[in-house]
Structure formats: structure tokens, C-alpha cells
Design a protein that fits this description.
Radius of gyration: 17 Å
Order of helices and strands: EEEHEHEHHEEEHE
Strand order of the largest sheet: 3-2-1-4-5
Helix content: 25-40%
Shape: globular
Number of strands: 9
Largest sheet: 5 strands, mixed
Distance between the termini: 19 Å
């Protein structure tokens, strides 16, 4: 799974990192992901416009195919408790909206919607495909096309192409991995970077 938060909600940590104080007036985004098994929470800031990528103030991850609904609430509570100003300092929320596994998606969306409504904060939905693409380091994606491959646990997988500046280079597709691999060969000599939990399927 992935932390979805602007440039890096695909990076997950096995343990929580301490929350740092962002710059005064900087936008802070609380991001949730439980789309691909396990769940993760991240706090991101744009540091009031200093630097393009912003930075992650803190993140936490729990692995496991089930129990996301029970895990997310205490993870969010711990993250917010460590943030100076608490939830009042959060400007917006972000959540992965799929594709992914139904139970995890439902848990993440429910938690994000509930928080957004209670706190009267805007909620931004990010596709899991776009989140994974955003987690590819800049030096790896430079001059390349990103291929995001997500394992659906069925005969077909989820795929999407992204340019090296993270713009979609095609529509999301559900296809048998062998058929998609043949499609990629038609791209010729273009350098490809494959990301996602379905990488081995290609």
C-alpha cells in the first residue's frame, strides 16, 4: 500500500516517524491510504511554497490484509496528537479512491469522509495509480514513462501510463498482464519504469 500525499503518499514507513513543525502558514495535508492491503497515514506540508516537492512531516504504516477500519483511527489520532495545533492545523485531507481492494478502500474512504465532515475540511481523492506514480523518485523517472501495475488478485490487473512529470499518458486499464506486456512492447525503444505491487506480473 502507499501513503498518498502530494509528491510522496506512495512512500510508507514500517514505524511512525516523529512529526516536525512546518513553516508558519504552510499548508498541511493529512493523507490516508488503505487501498492495497494494510494502511498508512501521512502528514505533508508545502512549507509555505519553499521547494516544489514539499516534505512529509510524519508517517506511519500498519501491514495486514484486514482490520484497516480498526487500525486507521488510532493511527490518525497519534499523528494528530504529535502535530502542533492538532487537527486545527490541518488544511485538507487526501485519500486513495482506487483501484484497490474493496474492504480497504471502504475503510479509508469512510474514515476520510468522516474526518472531513466533522472538521469541515476539503477532501481530495487521488487514484491509487496516480499515488504510486508519484512515489517514483525523480531521478528514476527522468526521461522515462512510468508504468503503474497493480495486482487485483484476479486474472486481470490494473495498469496506467504516466509521463515523467506525473501527468497521465493514457487511461487506466484493466487487462491480463500478458496482453498488457505485449502492448508495452509496441511502445518501441521508450524507457519504461515499472512501479506498483503488480510489477512482477509483467
Amino acid at each position: 500500500s502507499s501513503d498518498v500525499c502530494s509528491s510522496d503518499l506512495c512512500a510508507a514507513c514500517s514505524t511512525a516517524r516523529p512529526v516536525e513543525r512546518g513553516a508558519p502558514g504552510a499548508m498541511k495535508i493529512l493523507a490516508l491510504d488503505s487501498s492495497l492491503g494494510g494502511c498508512s497515514v501521512a502528514l505533508w506540508t508545502d512549507d509555505d511554497g519553499v521547494g516544489e516537492a514539499g516534505r512529509v512531516l510524519g508517517s506511519a504504516r500498519e501491514d495486514g490484509a484486514t482490520g484497516q477500519a480498526e487500525q486507521l483511527a488510532p493511527m490518525i489520532a497519534r499523528m494528530i496528537a504529535a502535530l502542533p495545533g492538532g487537527f486545527a492545523a490541518v488544511d485538507r485531507l487526501a485519500v486513495t479512491v482506487g483501484p484497490g481492494y474493496f474492504t480497504g478502500l471502504r475503510a479509508g474512504l469512510a474514515a476520510a469522509r468522516g474526518l472531513a465532515l466533522a472538521a469541515k475540511r476539503p477532501l481530495v481523492g487521488i487514484t491509487t495509480l496516480a499515488a504510486v506514480a508519484a512515489g517514483v523518485p525523480l531521478e528514476e523517472r527522468a526521461g522515462a514513462t512510468i508504468v503503474v501495475a497493480l495486482d487485483s488478485k484476479r486474472s486481470e490487473a490494473f495498469f496506467q501510463l504516466f509521463s515523467n512529470d506525473l501527468m497521465p499518458a493514457g487511461e487506466p486499464e484493466t487487462m491480463a498482464p500478458g496482453a498488457y506486456a505485449r502492448k508495452l512492447r509496441d511502445l518501441g525503444g521508450e524507457r519504461l519504469v515499472v512501479a506498483g505491487n503488480g510489477t512482477a506480473l509483467l
